[in-house]
Amino acid sequence: MSNTLSSSLRLVVAGLLVATASSFAPPQPRHATTSALVVQSRATTTKLQMSSMVPKVAVKATIAIASAALAGTAAIKFVLDKPSRTYGADTVADEYDAWTDDGILEYYWGEHIHLGYYSKEEMAKGYKKKGFIQAKYDFIDEMMAFGDIDPAANERAKVLDVGCGFGGTSRYLAKALGSGSDVTGITLSPQQVKRGTELAQEQGVPNAKFMVMDALKMDFPDNSFDIVWACESGEHMPDKRAYIDQMMRVLKPGGKFVMACWCQRDNSERPFDEKDDRDLTYLYEEWTHPYFVSIQEFAKLVDDTGVMSSVKTANWVEETIASWRHSIWVGVYDPFGWIFKVKKYIKTFRDAYCLERMHRAFKRGLMEYGMFAATKEKSTGTSQ
Questions:
Q1: Domain around 25
Q2: Percent helix / strand / coil, the chain, rounded to 5
Q3: How do residues 221-259 score in pLDDT, each as one tens digit?
Q4: Which residue, of 4, 120, 186, 254, has the fewest CB within 10 Å?
């Protein structure tokens, strides 16, 4: 709001300067005759009277325009600041069904509903020079490296992708690990399963399959998978402990766990203030999140299972933060993904506004991008 107010004030000041400048009549030449001087005097008086009216009209018009713009912006901001998708029993599945059906997310984000990875060199050159979709592929490669997942060593791995979206990462892993691997993606969204299956068939990836399943109540036996992969799904989980426990339960002894998740900063030493609480509430409720936790708390939940090696963690804010504004930019640069979907205008603008709010929250350290990797101990019990 402060930026808008400043712009409006600058508009008013500019109008005042223009109006004031117009009130100064140019100097008039001297004339030899008295009659000429009288005529000139009358003309000058008329011009001065006219010019004295100009700044008043200009000022009033400028202030009216600026006030209307400010009021309109304030009204729009008031509406956008009121979250529209508060978390509920079926909101996650419903929202992802809607995002899949309208096609806007897939048009811009491709097959991958997660942030991208940008190196320091790429950021120095300008993130817009990097392909938005390529950044997502690079993210998967970097996440594989972070989790010590090697295609050569894991070519026959059974992989679980928890919160798979419409399966972009599942298919990517299935291709990277080879035809001997078996990748299963789970999601609450039936439409995502349908779209993920369609794309797997179109791309000839038979070793990637998709299922509707609640990650908090997985219908898999203990010790089923060699790799458990979770990318930006923990944000939507109403029970973070059950989320972690279930993933550790279905992971085989010796298996690898790797997770990426938006996290809020640890507030144990610096408690959240009113602005922090207000901003977090917006981020929770606009994109149907129940709540976030810190990197430290997630790591503790993994440790508390008692079956995992020491958890490796990292904060990838610098590597991923460009994604928020990059995603807005691609929508402005190429509007064809949404411009003909008039019924989706409000939703599209709300999402763009939330992307910017996300950027600011990560920029000021209220949010962090948590990365986690651990290996399940080989001498463990069967279930958690």
A1: 2-80
A2: 55, 15, 30
A3: 999 999 999 999 999 999 999 999 999 999 999 999 999
A4: 120
> Does 85 fall in a domain?
no
Q: What is the CATH number of the domain that holds 134?
A: 3.40.50.150
Please check whether residue 381 lies inside any domain of the structure: no
Of 257, 187, 194, 203, which Cα lies nearest the Cα of 225? 257
| 132 shares a domain with 176 | yes
Q: What is the DSSP letter of 81?
A: T
Number of C-beta neighbours around residue 308 at 10 A: 21
The Cα-based distances of 143 to 119, 232, 294, 323 in angstroms read: 13, 12, 19, 16
pTM for this structure?
A: 0.77
Query: What percent of the chain has pLDDT above 90?
Result: 62
CA distance 93 to 95: 6
Cα-atom radius of gyration of the chain, to the nearest Å?
29
Chain centroid offset of residue 99 CA:
14
> Within this chain, do residues 110 and 219 fall inside the same structural domain, yes or no?
yes
List, for residues 41-73, the tens digit of each pLDDT value. 455 545 445 445 545 554 555 555 545 444 545
The DSSP bridge partners found for residue 183 are 159, 208
Whether the per-residue pLDDT at 275 is higher than 80: the answer is: yes
Closest CA relative to residue 354, chosen from 111, 156, 99: 99
d(CA 257, CA 376): 8
